[in-house]
Every structure is written in structure tokens, then in C-alpha cells.
Write a structure and sequence with these properties.
The structure is a homotetramer. The first copy, chain A, is an alpha+beta fold. Chain A has helices at residues 21-36, 95-104, 117-125, 164-177, 198-219, and strands at 47-52, 55-59, 73-77, 110-114, 131-135, 152-158, 183-186, 190-195. The first copy, chain A, has one domain (21-221): L-fuculose-1-phosphate Aldolase (3-Layer(aba) Sandwich), CATH 3.40.225. The first copy, chain A, has an 8-stranded mixed β-sheet, sandwiched between helices. In chain A, helix 3 (117-125) packs across helix 5. The N and C termini of chain A lie far apart (46 Å). Residues 1-13 of chain A have low confidence and may be disordered.
Chain lengths: 224, 224, 224, 224
């Protein structure tokens, strides 16, 4: 019952070649539920959680998220290199967008990525502006830095690229400059967000996907 | 089978420190179903039912509604104070928006709150006007004061605030002046509605959420 | 497996006070599935099937369609009067909109009614015009009178009213004049359609609800 | 676990009058899941997979896809003629749109067809233009010819017709001229796509349906 809030780095006393089963199954169940909501068409998106100070479990490349299971995670180090016993396997092409977060903030234990209709659309629509501004929504309180709806939240947008190494470095610069960042968009591609626990990453993901849909539908209304 | 219509205050002969299990499970099941429809993203929304003349069961603070269970309710009195055996626990931050209804109308047994896309959008869009007008819809007959579609229904809208005590008093004034009120919106935040039974509160919630979606989609059509 | 196509009037050799269980359960299952798609908010909509030349099973008044079961049907005659053993019970307020169809066409065995977002919207939008025109859609071939998409289909729209007896007579006149009619809208209220079997009524309902959604979404596009 | 990627022509050593059960059940499960997403209203759409060099299993005519099972496939040859033991049965009216693909490309093992809201709408909207252009979307990488989002993808659109033989020949000419084609639209009707395996056809279908919805919703936004 309930999504795990336990600090993942406590696992560091365990055998490091083993992916914690309960956590992997909990996240896999959410990945299937998010797929059913349309957040991961085709074989898009990727997900990870911290297994130790120097390693994470991340989704393998090209998996269909409608039937994602705990066996679809593999271990990599903070450079994105496959760790035993997964040497022969390939992790998500966007692995470095995960590792940069675990490297830069040891409090981060879960990183999630969606590829939704509204994330795809709005990241493209506001690319030139460089961010999407959200304010006055009660649901902004689901984000950790806010305890009121009377705030201005800016969701950064990066241009899409196939050079993931460069993108991860660009993101690192932004994150070092603005360490309270809890999410960003990649244009025509989707949303990245993270948290201290599965529960927190889920809360960020759901709040942001909801606000993206609200924002899009608000754009369609004529002013009055 | 069927949602309970029995008068909740009849429970008053029971041990008052016990939350009626069957009712709690019935409402918890609906809370999960409404979550699946997108009515409670992140950990938003809250729900309650009357347990006696001076007490109610209300959802605990910060629960994920996708897996809400009967154990996620706690007992509070009409001032919103935790009752034994729940002294150490925290009820929803919006508890006073529930208690004011049980205080002012002893026929009310269930209070529900949604945080939907259309409730969020339209409560913001019509805030200056102070209400949202709906008329000529057959589904208005699902509301207790109407037996025809040829009516004008006004759904009051309050500005959002983090001062829940003030908001509950503002609502109390409105309710005392207009005791047939069966629902209201909070801007950028969502819908509150209630009823004599779970079945009635569900009917109000579903009718209003449907009409909010219809109203939004009608706004997008050009006049012709 | 498969929805029943057997002629319902063959049941006439059975005990007429009994509602055929298998058919009732098949239709009840569909009613729950349509509810999950949003076609019957609150306690709206009603459904019936022929049990004999002079009687039908119809949904009882005020039932929640999310948990509709075979026990939620009752027997009425072609004037809409409750038949034994259901004398004390009340059938849907719109019973006469069903009986008129069974009276006028002995080939009709199932009548269904939805209360969808797009049916509510478009029946209101085109009320003055008196009908909604659909053409060039492949899915029009799901309707019995067409074997091509190159047709013009007109879905009649009646103004909403609480005088169901008058509405049923108005519909009777239309049906006698245009006996190939297979569906109509009531403004701000929803869709009625029917068929020789559950399978046929389901095909009409799904085709028309789909085309209503397509038509609405087409209206939002600028010409180009 | 996972959708089959094994080359279907390896089945050619088996008894050719038998439809491979595991493959039929896997595809049937997907057909039901796509129906639940609204991709096959009424009894629309059809699906097939290669059983041997000269034969395929294809959905029987008029089946309801909400309860499609492995028994709803039948064997036909590359001219679309029913093979034993299915001589008395009728395959989908659009069988020749499937056979042309198996004839022209022996690497194709699965052909799927959806009839979605956005496929219906956009195929009609862009008919005069003859195709729908998609570019700069990350999800274009789910299509086999692309390894970047920086591409222009053109989805061909054919006018709708009831002359399926002619349409299959028109498509054959296009396919011979442009053998990298992996999908096309028929106006007011829907999408055809295919692949070497169920997994690949599913990836194409989901990526294209997602991009159709994104494209439609982008058309509604005012330029800024």
C-alpha cells in the first residue's frame, strides 16, 4: 500500500548487482498505468531509480511500456555504462539525461519521462520563448517549492536533438544555476521530472501533465 | 449493490470512534474511480461523510487517490479537530470546507471535491463574473431543485485562497443566504458538491462535471 | 461469445412474466461499458429490449448505469404500464419513447439511449436546422440503409420537453412518414437509436457517437 | 511476454490449414485493446498476419472488435480467396488492401487498419493536398526509415471508394514507386500500416495515431 518513500541510498548495504525487486515492480506498475493514459506511445519514454550512490536501474532500450515489467530495468553507472550482469544489454538512448540528475543531486532517487500529446504540442509551441509559464493554479502546490497558488512557475524548454550527451551537459548547466528546477520539456518530445521517491516523482508528473492539458485548453478559449 | 441511501445519523447509536466500514469502502471505491477519470491529479481533492451529529470521517492529508482505501479516512469533529484514535494524524488542509456544510445542514451526509480539467479552467474563466450559468440542459434535472431542463442554474465561483478558514466563512454566508445551493467552484482549483447520501453526491458530481465539459466545448464553437 | 442476433419474438412461447436472463445480462454488460465511456452521466439514459409481441423489458427509473445489472430491468406493456411481478416499480420516465418503436415496427427488438457530450452539444447547436447532416464518412455504412459512404444522412432533432407523451407522438408521426429512420436526437439531451438485435443497436450507437465526435471536431477546424 | 518478432514465414513447415494460435491470440488481444481506445467503432477495421508465403490469416467480415478472439481470423490466399477449412466464410471487405502488401513485400508479416477520430478527420481535411506532412517530432523515430526527428514525413491519402480492387491496384502502383512507404490514409475512413512483426506494426500504428492527434490539436492553436 502506498508508494515507497524510503531513502533509496540505504540500499547501498545490499548486493549491488541486484535491482531491488519491490521498487522495480512498483515503478513498473506505474509505467503501465501511465502508458494506458497515453503518456508513452510506440516504445517512447524511459524511467529510472537510484540503486546506490554510483548506480541506477533504468529501462532497457525499445521496450513497449504497455507491458513493462521489473525485468525491463537494467543497472548502469553514473556514466551510463551497463553494469554486471547486464553487460550485453542496451539501456535507453536517453540514459545520460537520467545520470546527470543522480550525479548532481544525491537526494534524487527517481527520474521519469513522458511523451504526451500536450507535452509534445506545448514544448513545440513555446520553444522560441524558452519556457512555459504557469501561474495561479492550485495544483502548483503539488510542486515542492510552492505552498501557494500565487506563484509564477517556469518550465524550461530545450530544443530537441539527437545529441543526448550535449543535451545532458546543457541541462547540467541549467540545473547547477537553478537547483530548484524539478522538471523540463524537450521540444516536440516530452517532459522530464524527478523526485526523492516514486511518490514524489509521480506527484510532479501528474501535476505537470494536468497543467499542460489545462494550459492548452485555455489557449483555445477566446478572451472575454 | 447500489450506493447507500440510509440516513447516516442513525449510526449515532454505535461506538463513535469507529468509522463505518461499509460506507468508507463504498466511498473509497468511488474515489479511485473518479481518480481514473482524471478528477484528482497528484494528491489533490478530499472527501468526507457524516458519522454522527458532531463528527465526520474525512480523507487524510496528501493521500494518492489512485489507491485510496477505507484506511485513508480519519475522524474529526465539526471544528475539524482530529478525534480519537486519530489524534496524531492530519486531515485534509481543506477540512473546514467540509465541516461548515455538516454544521449548517444536518441533512448533508456526504461532501465531495474534484479537481478536474474543466472545473479548473472554467472557474478561472468566469471568476470575474462570480458564477457559471447553465441552462436548457436535460441533465440539470439531476440536481435536486429542478424537475425540468428549462431553468437557469448558477454555480457560484469563489476566488482561490490559502486561507481556508476565511473561505469556509465566506461560503457559510452564501449558504445561509441561499440554502438550496448544492455546489460551488473555487477558481483554478475545482468543484465542491454534496448530498444526503453517497448516491446523491455522486449524481451531483457527475452531472456537474459533465455540464462543465459540455459548456467548455460549446465555447469553442463559432455562433451560427 | 458475440452479441445475440436471435429474433426476440421467438421468446413468446416462454413464461411472459420472466425477463430472459441471458439477454438482460448481455445488455446490462454493454450499459456498464457505455457508462465507462461517459455516455450516461449521473442516472441518465434508459434501455429496453422486446420480450414478446406486447411487452418489453426496460430499465427502472433512476438507476446508476455504472453498476447496472439484469435486475435493473422491469417488464412493461406497450402503453408503458408495469406488468407483474413489477407492479410496484417505476420504469424510466422516457418509457413511451421506447414503446412507440416496438408498437410501430415489430422487427425492432432493442432500443438504446445515450446522453453523451457530443450528442448534448450538437443536438443543441443544430436544433433550429431540425437535423444534423453527415456525409462522405465510411462509417455511414454501419447504418442499415447504406452500402456506400457517398450518401447524405440526416439525423432528426426534436426540441427537448418534459412532456414525453407528446414527444412520443411527435416521433410516431415522423417514423410513420420516414420508416427507414434509425436514430434521432433530442436537443440538449441525447441520442435514441435501435435495432433488430443488441448487436445492431450497438453498431448504430457506436457509429453515430463516433460521427458526432468527428463532426464536432471538424467544426473547430478553420476551412483551408 | 513481449510481442513476437519471429519471422512468420518460418511457420511454412507447419500444417498450412492451421492458424498459428499464439500469434492469433496476441494480435486478438491488441485488437481488443485498440478497440477500447476508440480505434474501431461499430464493426469497422480489419487485421491480418502472414501464415506462409502464399497465405494469410485475416479478420472475418463484420466482427465486433470489442470481443475479437483468435477464432475471428480465417485463412485466405494472396488473391483474397477463402482457404480450407474456411470455404464458407467471408473475410473483411477490404481483404485486397492486405493481400497486395504480402504480395509485394515478403518481409511484411502483419497489416493493421484503424478507424480513429483523428484519422477520419485529417484524411478528409488534407485529401486535396494528397498527403499529410509531419516533421520535427521525436516520435517520427518510431518509423523505420528515420533515426532523427529532423525529417519530413509524408503520409499519402487516397480518396475513399467502395471499389476495393481498384484501390488495391492504386496502392500497388504507389508502393512499387515508393517501397519505403509504411502507412497511408483513406479519406474519411482511416489508417493502414504494417510491419515485419506484430511489435513493429503496433509501433507504427501507435506512433501515427499519436501524431495525428497532435497534428489536429496543433491546427486549433492560433499562430503566435
Amino acid at each position: 500500500m502506498g508508494f515507497s518513500l524510503r531513502p533509496f541510498h540505504l540500499f547501498s548495504c545490499y548486493d549491488m548487482s541486484i535491482i531491488p525487486k519491490e521498487t522495480a515492480e512498483q515503478l513498473a506498475q506505474l509505467i503501465r498505468a501511465w502508458n494506458a493514459k497515453g503518456f508513452s506511445p510506440a516504445t517512447s519514454t524511459n524511467y529510472s531509480f537510484r540503486v546506490g550512490a554510483d548506480r541506477l536501474a533504468i529501462s532497457k532500450s525499445g521496450r513497449d511500456k504497455s507491458q513493462f515489467s521489473a525485468q525491463d530495468f537494467m543497472l548502469v553507472d553514473l556514466k551510463g555504462r551497463a553494469l554486471p550482469p547486464f553487460e550485453g544489454e542496451r539501456s535507453s538512448a536517453e540514459t545520460l539525461l537520467h545520470t546527470v540528475l543522480y550525479e548532481e543531486n544525491e537526494a534524487i532517487n527517481v527520474v521519469v519521462h513522458t511523451h504526451s500529446i500536450y507535452g509534445t504540442l506545448l514544448s513545440d509551441y513555446y520553444l522560441k520563448q524558452g519556457n512555459l509559464r504557469l501561474s495561479q493554479y492550485e495544483l502548483l502546490k503539488a510542486l515542492p517549492q510552492f505552498d501557494s497558488h500565487e506563484v509564477d512557475f517556469e518550465l524550461p524548454i530545450f530544443p530537441n536533438t539527437q545529441d543526448i550527451e550535449q543535451l545532458s551537459e546543457d541541462f547540467r548547466q541549467l540545473y547547477l544555476a537553478q537547483p530548484t528546477t524539478i522538471a523540463y520539456l524537450i521540444a516536440g518530445h516530452g517532459l522530464y521530472t524527478w523526485g526523492k521517491s516514486i511518490a514524489e516523482a509521480k506527484r510532479h508528473l501528474e501535476a505537470l501533465e494536468f497543467l499542460l492539458e489545462v494550459h492548452y485548453k485555455k489557449l483555445l478559449l477566446a478572451p472575454h
